[in-house]
Q: What sequence folds into this?
């Protein structure tokens, strides 16, 4: 489990370094007259130092972490598939929303997740999909006027 | 205005039919999202936020705050009946509440949770009513150094109280501060870390980040394992009224929890979650029969449920008097006020007394509604719980998608939400706390100007934070919070040897 602490603290160091370089470019200013880069610089230095402290302490004492060793760290193959498919459908939602409009996108989104993540019966899939898409259209578009994008057919 | 006139004004606003209706809608929605695991008050408030833009601000805030304290009531129902906390603030309620239900005492458990919540919630508002005016006077003396120290204390407190590892908590807090610096900087108008994306000029929105970190990441975690069908209690639940012995067992627990919740809730970084754990720990320690805890002790339900409601009401204190949101949900409420050009802070009580007292008085009414509403509706909530997760999660995701899109009508916010969903998932896997990121991000936007103004005032000397009395006290508390755990560790080692 030590490995995961090392990987994650190195990732945080990298985030800190990126922000650090960025704030340097923005201009730090003096202590009496802090510039735009001052605060992010201070915080990225904090992030880097805390990460390094965590890194060194996790190298020193092994096996003292609050990970549940009895469980695998990453989920089973099927679990990973479910997670990746869900993230993928969220991304597709963003890509197609402006082209085919909210109602159709939501319809396809709900349909896909219901049928392919943990497959439900066809009747359940269709009734829930139609019900949720219709209700969200009525509530958010007609009632709350959320200005969701319309597709080529006008909804 | 004396206190009676203030309350009179408040109730006249709160009893207005429209406001009364909005309060009712708020607590009803709140209880519903409290019952549904994976859909929190933050997501719901964000969803209904655009609706309040066209409303009168008082009515809008009355409804949104109703969602917040309504969710505290709803969360306990699922903890007791299914052993699944509807909200993070009801995790502790599972320990004894579910055990009580297994022993056929689901009714009294639900009953004491509702009554305890009502008593503590109402006392919390009484406290809010009494504490707010003097605190406003004190807040007017606050300069940038005091504000900075107070907010830093809030973040440090959250880190030291919640996370297993303080260093890991500090890392995520620093990350939150970095996120808050994205966007246009207020002193010179310089664009920071925007990469030419127009939508980032105003900074990263708190709503998509919260929905991603809490909503989406939770769904991803749940998808790791195939869903099980939960065992919802099939026996008939009857007799919500706790008997005399139940009351005797839990009266002091409720009283203590109210005080703990009120104190922890009124501090930035304290809040509802911590107060439930604190209350449970204290009740167990003070109890004459600690072995009963975890096996259906009614104090273990009454205490934490009372604590989260008292804390929830108290968390309005820093927002309404100092203009500091103590957590992400109140930060969203603050955003709702700002849309109407109302700046929360010491001047709010004087400039908008109708809003200030109207919202506070609506909470008294809302708590009564919740008590009346909650118990008879439990059979309905149980039905809601029977929706299997594979059907529920697409709906939760759809609500998050609509919510993050509709705030600004921008796809960039949706992308941010998805990204933070993935970040949140990884943070949970690698055991990093999420709450400090959000609080630091919320407070960062105010802390940076406070820090820079302080440094300008002092010509670049950090001594300004230690030479002013209020700020010095806050800094000392902070040092104690950071050093205390290590002292404890050393002492334990010493004793063992």
A:
């Amino acid at each position: 489990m030590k490995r995961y602490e090392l990987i994650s603290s190195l990732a945080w160091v990298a985030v800190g370094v990126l922000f650090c370089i960025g704030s340097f470019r923005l201009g730090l200013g003096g202590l009496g007259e802090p510039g735009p880069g001052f605060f992010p610089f201070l915080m990225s230095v904090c992030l880097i130092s805390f990460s390094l402290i965590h890194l060194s302490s996790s190298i020193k004492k092994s096996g003292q972490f609050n990970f549940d060793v009895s469980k695998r760290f990453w989920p089973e193959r099927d679990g990973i598939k479910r997670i990746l498919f869900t993230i993928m459908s969220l991304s597709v939602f963003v890509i197609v929303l402006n082209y085919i409009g909210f109602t159709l996108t939501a319809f396809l989104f709900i349909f896909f997740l219901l049928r392919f993540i943990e497959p439900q019966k066809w009747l359940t899939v269709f009734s829930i999909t139609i019900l949720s898409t219709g209700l969200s259209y009525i509530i958010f578009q007609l009632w709350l006027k959320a200005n969701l994008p319309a597709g080529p057919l006008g909804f | 205005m004396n206190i009676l006139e203030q309350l009179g004004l408040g109730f006249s606003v709160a009893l207005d039919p429209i406001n009364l209706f909005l309060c009712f809608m708020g607590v009803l929605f709140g209880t519903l999202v409290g019952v549904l695991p994976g859909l929190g008050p933050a997501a719901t408030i964000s969803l209904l936020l655009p609706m309040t833009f066209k409303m009168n601000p008082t009515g809008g805030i009355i409804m949104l705050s109703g969602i917040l304290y309504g969710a505290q009531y709803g969360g306990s129902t699922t903890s007791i009946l299914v052993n699944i906390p509807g909200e993070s603030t009801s995790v502790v309620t599972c320990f004894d509440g579910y055990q009580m239900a297994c022993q056929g005492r689901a009714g009294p458990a639900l009953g004491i949770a509702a009554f305890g919540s009502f008593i503590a919630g109402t006392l919390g508002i009484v406290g809010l009513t009494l504490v707010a005016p003097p605190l406003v006077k004190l807040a007017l003396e606050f300069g940038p150094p005091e504000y900075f120290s107070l907010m830093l204390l809030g973040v440090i407190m959250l880190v030291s109280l919640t996370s297993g590892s303080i260093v890991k908590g500090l890392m995520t807090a620093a990350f939150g501060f970095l996120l808050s610096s994205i966007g246009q900087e207020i002193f010179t108008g310089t664009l920071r870390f925007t990469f030419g994306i127009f939508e980032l000029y105003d900074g990263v929105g708190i709503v998509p980040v919260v929905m991603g970190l809490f909503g989406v990441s939770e769904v991803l975690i749940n998808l790791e394992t195939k869903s099980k069908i939960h065992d919802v209690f099939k026996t008939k639940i009857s007799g919500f009224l706790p008997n005399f012995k139940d009351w005797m067992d839990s009266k002091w627990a409720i009283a203590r929890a109210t005080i703990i919740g009120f104190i922890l809730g009124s501090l930035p970084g304290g809040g509802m979650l911590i107060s439930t754990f604190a209350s449970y720990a204290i009740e167990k320690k003070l109890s004459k029969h600690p072995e009963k805890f975890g096996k259906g002790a009614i104090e273990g339900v009454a205490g934490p449920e009372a604590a989260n409601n008292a804390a929830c009401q108290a968390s309005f204190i820093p927002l309404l008097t100092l203009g500091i949101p103590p957590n992400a949900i109140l930060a969203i409420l603050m955003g709702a006020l700002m849309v109407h050009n109302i700046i929360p802070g010491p001047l709010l009580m004087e400039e908008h007394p109708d809003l200030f007292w109207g919202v506070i008085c609506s909470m008294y009414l809302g708590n009564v509604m919740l008590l009346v509403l909650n118990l008879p509706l439990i059979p309905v909530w149980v039905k809601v719980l029977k929706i299997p997760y594979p059907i529920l999660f697409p709906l939760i995701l759809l609500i998050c998608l609509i919510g993050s899109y509709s705030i600004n009508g921008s796809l960039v916010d949706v992308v941010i939400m998805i990204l933070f969903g993935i970040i949140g998932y990884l943070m949970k896997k690698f055991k990093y706390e999420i709450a400090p990121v959000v609080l630091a991000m919320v407070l960062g936007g105010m802390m940076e100007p406070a820090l820079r103004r302080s440094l300008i005032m002092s010509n670049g000397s950090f001594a300004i934070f230690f030479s002013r009395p209020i700020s010095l006290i806050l800094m000392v508390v902070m040092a104690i919070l950071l050093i205390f755990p290590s002292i404890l560790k050393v002492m334990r080692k010493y004793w063992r040897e």
